[in-house]
Amino acid sequence: MTESEWWWPAGPGEVGRLLVRTPLMARELPAFDAAAAPDGPGELFAAWLAAAVAAGVLDPHAMTLATVGLDGVPDARVVALRNVDEAGGGWVFAASADSPKGRQLANRAVAAMTCYWPAQGRQVRLRGRVEAAPAEVAAAEFRKRSPRSRVAGLVARQSEPLESTAGYEAAAAEAERRLAAEPDAVPPGHTVYALWADEVEFWQGDAGRRHVRLRYRRAAGGAGWRRELLWP
Q1: What does the buried/exposed string (b/e) look like for 110-135 if buried means 16 or more CB atoms within 10 Å of the residue's CB?
Q2: Is 0.85 surpassed by the pTM of this model?
Q3: 98 SS3 class
Q4: Which NCBIfam families match (predicted)?
Q5: DSSP for 175-230?
Q6: With contact defined as beta carbons under 8 Å apart, do 108 and 68 qualify?
Q7: What is the DSSP string of 121-169?
Q8: What's the confidence (pLDDT) of residue 14?
Q9: How confident is residue 88, by pLDDT bands cut at 50, 70 and 90?
Q10: Range of 110's domain?
């Protein structure tokens, strides 16, 4: 198979034509003065997140978490951002230690996270080591969740094969009964993690493809950050 055959195995097809007819960044987008950015990425992330919320971006706390699978192949999924340590550069999320991502992080405690806010054409990318919080922190975080979220957490067995939706409904009903009897119940595997970023990139899209990219790198010894612009 030639390179052109690989790229167009049966012609562009309807999906390819649809994508070509749907231009990227074809809207008014905010400017980004990288020279005026703060010294650390946490403060800038907080400002961009607030702008996304103000603009009505749906699920602005949704971030793609990429980990290294036990087979060495990258794995990714969307998780909810729970907090940001603006001073230290830590991005907080939660997961079950028994889930695929929990097992992957136990094997290799490194990850990357990415978020994209379409209304602003803004993307944030970060990568670094991952650290699990103490059990009492995880328990406190879980107990602050909505009842529906806690029921889902108590069902557990995430990513295991499910024979039928009726099986899940039965498990959810049992979790509801347990939560009613034990309001402070916490799943044993519930874990809060922090991704301590060594690199954070802020990407501001531009309709004319003059995208602005600003990368923060943690300085040697972890004291402060170095900033640099990147070519689009």
Answers
A1: ebbbbbbbebbbbbbbbbbebebbee
A2: yes
A3: coil
A4: PRK05679.1
A5: HHHHHHH-TT---TTEEEEEEEEEEEEEEE--TTS--EEEEEEEPGGG-SEEEEEE
A6: yes
A7: TEEEEEEEEEEEPPHHHHHHHHHTS-HHHHHHHHH--TTS--S-HHHHH
A8: 84
A9: confident
A10: 25-140+188-230
Token pair in block for residue 116? 């994209």
Per-chain mean pLDDT for the chain: 91
Name residue, tokens 């501001």.
204
In the beta sheet, which residues pair with residue 116? 123
Q: Three-state SS for 108?
A: coil
Tell whether 9 is covered by a domain. no
Contacts of 45 (CB under 8 A, 6+ apart): 84, 86, 124, 200, 202
Amino acid identity for residue 118 in this structure: P
Confidence class of residue 1 from pLDDT cuts 50, 70 and 90? Answer: very low
User: Residue 38 domain-assigned?
Assistant: yes
Q: Is residue 160 part of a domain?
A: no
- In a domain? residue 108: yes
What's the domain count of the chain? 1
